[in-house]
Write a structure and sequence with these properties.
single chain, 333 residues, mainly alpha, 2 strands, 72% helix, globular, G-protein coupled receptor, G-protein coupled receptors family 1 profile domain-containing protein, receptor, membrane
């Protein structure tokens, strides 16, 4: 790859962008680490939260935690100081970020498919599909598949030397004068992964919504509660259900679609730096929001959180499950 050159004016123009990205990484890192650690801790500490559904949520939180706790702080420091690490290490970090990001995206699909089977299929089908061994295999494949795509690319890299006159702004999935051309592989694969996950999410949630409307059940897509035998005239519940579905779909769409389409468009035409940086920061925001969109309306998560804050963790095992929690427990193997 040929060396890149930049004028002093271009270097000064990158200063504001570098400050913005470094600040965003710092804020994301702290808030995302705390949120993901909290969800993982609650699920591991409270027996009522140890369900098949929450296993997929924890899987996503683990990958998000790796991004927020390890990748983002390093990037914030490198962008702030302008240091350049070894090129081989840069390729390695690009690879592990792609792995963690893809696992996070796949976890969204696993959660949606789990709810789709739980709500739209018979209980016997759900128990058959989501046996403990099958669930473990699903989670394992969410890590193995991205790794299988990543290893051939990773081992096929060759050492290269690039001179950066300006402090580096590293957005791994984009390429240009800031990052190596080798990023095109992970860029295309990341965009395809985002688009495929979007299709799966919208299909599952649309089918869930239709099933609920026809069967007169009410389901919260954020806390995934199945409530039976509600009155037919529940317009507020209907509106609330639609709002929950909309929130989940909108959060995922708004944080991922700008990134995916800007990557694909960037294959053919250069994009303004503002669009590139904005779409990238929106994608990184997803790693912070994941724990909230699946737990903030879950009464059992909120009750467990209050128990931790109030120092009543020892009482959690003595709490009796409410009817909603019992319904979920009956559906989870």
């Amino acid at each position: 790859m040929s060396n890149s050159t930049s004028s002093p004016g271009q270097c000064e123009g990158l200063l504001g962008t570098r400050v913005l990205v470094a600040t965003a990484y710092s804020v994301y890192s702290v808030s995302g680490t705390l949120a993901n650690v909290l969800v993982i801790y609650l699920v591991c500490s409270f027996k009522k939260l140890k369900t098949t559904s929450n296993a997929f949520i924890v899987n996503g939180c683990v990958s998000d935690l790796l991004v927020c706790a390890f990748w983002m702080p390093q990037e914030a420091i490198l962008i702030s100081t302008g240091r350049l690490e070894n090129p081989s290490y840069r390729v390695f970090m690009e690879g592990v970020f792609f792995l963690w990001m893809t696992v996070s995206l796949l976890s969204h699909s696993l959660i949606a498919l789990n709810r789709f089977v739980l709500i739209t299929k018979l209980p016997t089908v759900y128990h058959t599909v989501y046996q403990k061994r099958n669930t473990e295999w699903m989670i394992a494949m969410a890590w193995v598949l991205p790794l299988a795509f990543l290893l051939p690319w990773l081992f096929g890299q060759r050492p290269y030397d690039v001179i950066f006159p300006c402090p580096q702004l590293r957005l791994y999935v984009f390429w240009g004068h800031e990052v190596p051309v080798s990023s095109s592989y992970t860029a295309i694969l990341s965009a395809v992964t985002v688009l495929s996950q979007t299709i799966i999410l919208f299909h599952c949630y649309f089918r869930i919504f239709r099933k609920v409307q026809v069967s007169l059940k009410r389901v919260s897509v954020l806390n995934f509660q199945v409530v039976h035998n509600l009155p037919c005239s529940c317009p507020r519940k209907d509106k609330r259900l639609g709002l929950y579905v909309l929130i989940v779909c909108c959060v995922f769409t708004l944080t991922t679609e700008p990134f995916a389409w800007s990557v694909l468009y960037g294959l053919f035409q250069p994009l303004p730096s503002g669009i590139v940086v904005g779409s990238w920061l929106l994608l990184c925001l997803l790693f912070v929001l994941n724990p909230f969109i699946y737990t903030w309306k879950n009464e059992e998560f909120r009750r467990s959180f209050r128990a931790v804050v109030g120092g009543e963790l020892w009482k959690s095992s003595a709490n009796t499950a409410d009817p909603v929690v019992q319904t979920i427990s009956q559906n989870d193997p």
